[in-house]
Predict the structure.
Amino acid sequence: MLMEADKVMFEIYRETAYTGKYRVVYFTELNEANKEYEINRALSGEHFYDGFIKNFRKEEAKDRIDALLKRMNEGEKLTPADIERELAPYTPELSN
């Protein structure tokens, strides 16, 4: 079972007030200097997908997320199920 420190919580959202681009925020990696700004920015956007990635190999997972955002921002229509499928190797298993 993964502990809280072994995973990173994130959200993919679409900006509605600025560029209309899809963005990601990694909540568990925010610090006091940027926490309020990034959370408010995500909250003002349109929620698309949220979840956790394993801390182990998180840079690979972030690269995958960046590639997905690039595809979406270039006009490809992806669903939350597509995102989930792409991130499956990096997602912690759910425990009861």
About this structure: The two ends are 10 Å apart (CA to CA). The chain has one domain: 4-90. The chain has a mean pLDDT of 90. Strands lie at 7-14, 22-26, 46-54.
